[in-house]
Amino acid sequence: MKNNIDGVLVVEGASDVAYLSRYINAIFFITNGYDISDKKIEFLSRVSKVNKIVLMTDPDDAGQAIENKIKNKIR
Predict the structure, then answer these.
(1) Mean of the per-residue pLDDT values of the chain
(2) 28, 55 Cβ separation under 8 angstroms
(3) Which residues pair with 27 in a beta bridge?
(4) 8 pairs with which residues across the strands?
(5) Which of 27, 42, 66, 72 is the most buried (most CB within 10 A)?
């Protein structure tokens, strides 16, 4: 049985979506690793007004950089 997450899960790549979607029903947003543009950040900022944003990045340099960029620009 899959768990439902009420929010948008931010992940680094398509393989993350493939794996997590086996266990979780949610809306996924792919950053493509370090490649998270200001346009994507702006989109997430608008989405955050109506949905929770859940960061599910890897515990490595890329994941930390993505998390920091999102946290610094979305409040």
Answers:
(1) 92
(2) no
(3) 8
(4) 27, 53
(5) 66
Please state the rounded mean pLDDT for residues 2-10: 94
Is residue 10 within 8 Å of residue 55, measured between CB atoms?
Answer: yes
pLDDT band at 1 (very low <50, low <70, confident <90, very high): confident
Q: How far is Cα 64 from Cα 54, in angstroms, rounded to an integer?
A: 14
pLDDT band at 25 (very low <50, low <70, confident <90, very high): very high
**SS3 for the chain, per residue?**
CCEEEEEEEEECCHHHHHHHCCCEEEEEEECCCCCCCHHHHHHHHHHCCCCCEEECCCCCHHHHHHHHHHHHHCC
